Amino acid sequence: MSLICRASDRALARLAASGTAEPEAPWLRRHLGRCEGCRAAWEAYRRMGEVLPEALEAPVADDRFVAGVWTAIDAHPAGHKAGRRVAAWNWAVAAAAVAALVLTVANSLGPRQGDSAKTDPGALQVAAAGDPLDTRPQSSGMTGQGAQRAAGTTDARKATAPKVAKRSEASPRRQTVRRLTERESAAARAAIQRMLRRRLANSGTVPQARSASSSATEATTTTASSWLDWARYYESQSNHASAAYAYRQAWREGGDTSTAYAAARTSEAAGDIVGAVEFYARILDDSEPQRAPIEGSSHHNSARAVQG
Amino acid sequence: MEVAMLTDGVSVTDESLAVAARNGDRAAYSALVQRYRNPVFATSFAMLGNREDAEDAAQESFVRAYRALNSFDARRPWSAWLMSIVRNLCRDMARRRSVRIAQPLGETLHADTAISPEADLLVSEGAEEIRSAVAALPEQVRVPIVLHYAYGHTNREIALALGLPESTVVGRIASGLRRLRRRFAGEVQ
Question: Is the distance from CB of A224 to CB of A259 less than 8 angstroms?
């Protein structure tokens, strides 16, 4: 086969593939006129175009094809957007189930000793109802399954459960304490401190508190001094809770107003607002009667205006 | 209104139907399946060579496309995206099953008048032999031959289905024709 015949064969095949009825290129037409082999090839390609469609089968999808697609999709919906939504929802359910399991296990173990006062407001309420300064944890503060299980273990605990419910209801005293600690503590502290500063400024000295207890014994003074030493030590260590306790003990052993003020201050620093308010109030209660207003002060002027 | 648009079948583009299907419109996806079931099935049959595998591949292609609708870019043609799924799936199936085309199913080829001895031989060959010869072609040649001569697809449609330039499709069909002619010419000699 000559080179032109090879070129002619390629060209004729492409012409047949593109559906051309007759070659239009002049060189190809001239070559077909001279070359019998290429003319036979062209006839063969044309014939293939007629034979192949009849020889080759061409099945088509039946009418149930669309329904079959939907059946397959619905049989395995995962992967589509809806399926992803379901998957995401399943993850949320799994996370919620794990969280519920953790909470259930935690409740079934029950509250640890010393935690209820921090975690359960009910415990503080019950404690405040009995003693405003006693915030020790109460077993009655348990809630949830742990409380139910604890209440169900013994008859005695069953008997205490209703009492707890009654005590946990609001009482005027507890409400007063709680209102002080939550709403008015800041204003009360500021007011008390302003009053103390004013009185100290007016008198020039710290009011002599507990003057009625001036007959304290030497042993008591020694004990108070020891508590004061401990209190100062704890305060230097920034252990405000222990310092407040030591200052309170010192005040109870015969401390003066400055000790009460230190007890209030450290209690406030330790976060014991109830204790701080109590000692501030005791300072006010133990303070001396109001002296005459200082000459030239606003109180003195207003008093003169009233008298005039 | 939406159903009317779907039944119209012309005013709604493939891409808008795909977006509607992505938003949960099953009727829109049914319309897409209806539109493309024949090209998809034909391509599957051309690549796999038997009806059962082609049905499986075509159905699975639409299932995969439905599940992958979130990844479909509506700015690109739906047909190209769908046919790429079909091609990849068919190649995977062919690789797994080692499927080759053309188990003879048709009747004998109707003889016709021949112009040349070579054409005479071609005509005299039975349909089974022709299908066997086509089945023996390489895939890249066989698929456009089947789509063009069996299903009557134009070269442009084949190019779209296979993701090829139209000139490449013509060249591959021409290559197949030459191979077939050489085979039957060899038998003549």
Answer: yes
- A292: helix, coil or strand? coil
Give DSSP secondary structure letters for A238-282: T-HHHHHHHHHHHHHTT--HHHHHHHHHHHHHHT-HHHHHHHHHH
CA atoms within 13 A on the CB side of B172: 24
CA distance A109 to chain B (A): 47
Query: Exposed/middle/buried for A112, CB within 10 Å: 0-12, 13-18, 19+?
Result: exposed
Contact A27, B103 (CB under 8 A): no
Please calculate the CA angle B154-B158-B160 and round it to the nearest 5 degrees.
115
Q: How large is the ipTM?
A: 0.75
Taking Cα atoms as reference points, which of A215, A217, A198 lies closest to residue A287?
A: A198
Residues of chain A with Cβ-Cβ distance to B42 below 8 Å are 58, 60
Cβ neighbours for B14, distance < 8 A, ≥ 6 positions apart? B32, B35, B77, B78, B79
* Two structure tokens written together for B45: 């049959």
A38 CB neighbours in chain B (<8 A) are none
Distance between CA atoms of A122 and A137, rounded to whole angstroms? Answer: 10
Residue labelled with tokens 């405040």: A128
pLDDT in tens, A153-176: 444 444 444 343 344 444 444 444
Q: Which of B46, B45, B67, B66 is nearest to B55 (CA)?
A: B45
Q: Minimal CA–CA distance to A55: which of B124, B178, B96?
A: B124
Among candidates B69, B106, B171 on the partner chain, residue whose Cβ is nearest the Cβ of A14:
B171
Does the model's pTM come out above 0.90? no
Residues in a beta bridge with A80? A78
- What is the mean pLDDT, run by run of 10 residues, along chain B of 189 residues? 43 88 91 92 91 91 93 91 93 76 38 48 70 89 93 92 92 93 66
